[in-house]
Specification:
- The protein has 507 residues and is an alpha/beta fold.
- It has 3 domains: 5-196, Rossmann fold, CATH 3.40.50; 224-353, Cytidine Deaminase, domain 2; 380-499, AICAR transformylase, duplication domain (Cytidine Deaminase, domain 2, 3-Layer(aba) Sandwich), CATH 3.40.140.20.
- The chain contains 20 helices and 21 strands.
- Strands 8-13-12-11-9-10 form a 6-stranded mixed sheet. Strands 16-21-20-19-17-18 form a 6-stranded mixed sheet. A 5-stranded parallel sheet has the order 3-2-1-4-5, with helices on both faces.
- The longest helix has 30 residues, at 167-196.
- It starts with a strand and ends in an 8-residue tail after the last strand.
Length: 507
């Protein structure tokens, strides 16, 4: 269909002036609104105001300007349909062949700190989605563009077809338009549902990032959706697998707990060891010393650029993925000698990348919860003896790590490193025993260490086992009916103990 008339109204004005100028050079009559029209006039591009096209003024502070029969009639009437053509002539509908619209920035608005409900509502676009849907419904005759990235494609298509666009392009752009408006409405609904605490249904639409070779196991098909690729850049190695992506996400969430230079090693989303030091190479030594067997085929992450000394140390073991904010040239050269090793650059901060919601599929549905990002804890000392500064630092380190270990979880730690980790056991005392055994296997002393538990100690035996292993302090949520017995056990062993009031179950 030849493009003779275009309606252009955009919030994101990226590239709109060159695009409109190219349309004008092809003889296209351009209709526009508000700020878009002002911009085009400044660029000396002939443009008709929407009010002159509709013969009706913009009213209600611009809330009503394109919601008019001449706009939607010009978009929706079927070209070549005798009845529609006759009605269009009778009503004075001029055909609109191209709609170029992007919407009020609702998502950017609600992302601003302190945004009010009234501000959010004012940034709900009504006319834009209406025009997009009208144009997309009539894609057999009308071209709709909702993404500045498609401007050049449309112009090239018109140049190649004597001012017309092809049906194939119009179909593709219409699908993209409907997806855009559905995502826009979903964002609004999700925000209002949260703000008003209503019982509306939950929905989610995410773009495809990539198809994966398979899922957790070779017989399972899988794909990745969302914006993962804007946060993580693969610099080297094989394609990422389903399990790689799970591990990368878990590693990023863990490293986000630490501001000091830190290295963490993970396997199957569980931390194997974590170490902090101003010298990242020494931080690696601390992390690796926790468990020298489990890291084989694991994930390594650090929160500082990875330099040559650390690269040399890491290259001595087999790893699946290494993640860092950047890789210095010498380090990259060393690590790229392993062709199957994936090097991933974390393009945004670990804190910014973590999701605000956590979703789990269940039989017949989906569970949705806020992500476990609680950072403020109540440091309620419940023991007779108060912890020393060193013990507080050790407890803080252990608490940041235990949050990312599968329940039941126990972590023995010092102020700058993990010493023993027990994960995913049916009994907390078993998790403690495994953590102690791991530390002994690694030749690490637990004397003077802190023990961190992701949930309360249900019985005094877990705490007693920690004291027997050498721990002098404990940090746990509290909340057991036997808290008094557990506190008494701590006092008997002269242990300092803190209740946080927050638990970190990870099922």
């Amino acid at each position: 269909m030849k493009v003779t008339r275009a309606l252009v109204s955009v919030s994101d004005k990226t590239g709109i002036a060159p695009f409109a100028r190219a349309l004008e050079r092809q003889g296209v009559d351009i209709i526009s609104t508000g700020g878009t029209a002002d911009l085009l006039r400044k660029e000396k591009i002939p443009v008709r105001e929407i009010s002159s096209f509709t013969a009706f003024p913009e009213v209600l502070e611009g809330r009503v300007k394109t919601l008019h029969p001449r706009v939607h009639g010009g978009l929706l009437y079927k070209r070549g349909n005798a009845k529609h053509e006759a009605e269009a002539r009778e009503c004075g509908f001029e055909p609109i062949d191209l709609v170029v619209v992007n919407l009020y920035p609702f998502e950017a608005t609600i992302a601003k700190p302190g945004v009010t409900l009234a501000e959010a509502i004012e940034n709900i676009d009504i006319g834009g989605p209406s025009m997009i849907r009208s144009a997309a419904k009539n894609y057999e005759s009308v071209t709709v563009v909702v993404d500045p990235a498609d401007y050049d494609t449309v112009l090239e298509n018109m140049r190649d077809n004597n001012g017309e666009t092809t049906l194939k392009l119009r179909e593709r752009l219409a699908i993209k338009a409907f997806i855009k408006t559905s995502e826009y409405d979903r964002t609004i609904g999700k925000f209002l549902n949260k703000e008003q605490a209503s019982d509306a249904s939950f929905s989610l639409s995410l773009p495809l990032v990539m198809r994966l070779r398979y899922g957790e196991n070779p017989h399972q098909s899988a794909a990745l959706y969302g914006n993962f690729d804007t946060h993580f850049e693969k610099l080297h190695g094989k394609d990422l697998s389903f399990n790689n992506i799970l591990d990368i996400s878990a590693a990023t969430n863990l490293i986000g707990e630490f501001e000091e230079p830190t290295v963490a090693i993970l396997k199957h989303t569980n931390p194997c060891g974590v170490g902090s030091d101003a010298d990242l190479r020494k931080a690696w030594d601390k992390a690796f010393a926790t468990d020298k067997q489990a890291p084989f085929g694991g994930i390594i992450i650090c929160n500082r650029p990875l330099a040559e000394p650390l690269a040399k140390a890491i290259s001595e073991i087999f790893s699946e993925v290494i993640i860092a904010p950047d890789f210095e040239a010498e380090a990259r050269s060393i690590l790229q000698k392993k062709k199957n090793l994936r090097l991933i650059r974390l393009a945004t901060s670990a804190v910014e990348v973590r999701s605000a919601i956590d979703m789990r599929s269940v039989c017949g549905g989906v569970l949705v919860q806020d992500a476990d990002v609680a950072e403020e804890i109540t440091r309620n000392v419940v023991s007779k003896r108060r912890p020393t500064k060193t013990e507080l630092n050790s407890m803080s380190f252990g608490w940041r790590v235990v949050k990312h270990v599968k329940s039941n979880a126990i972590v023995y730690a010092r102020a700058d490193r993990t010493l023993g980790i027990g994960a995913g056991q049916m009994s907390r005392i078993d998790a403690s025993r495994i953590a102690i055994w791991k530390a002994n296997e690694a030749g690490l002393s637990l004397k003077g260490s802190a023990v961190a538990s992701d949930a309360f100690f249900p019985f005094p035996d877990g705490l007693s086992a920690a004291a027997d292993a050498g721990a002098t302090c404990a940090i746990q949520p509290g909340g057991s009916v036997r808290d008094e017995e557990v506190i008494a056990a701590a006092n008997e062993r002269n242990m300092a103990m803190i209740f946080t009031g927050i638990r970190h179950f990870r099922h």
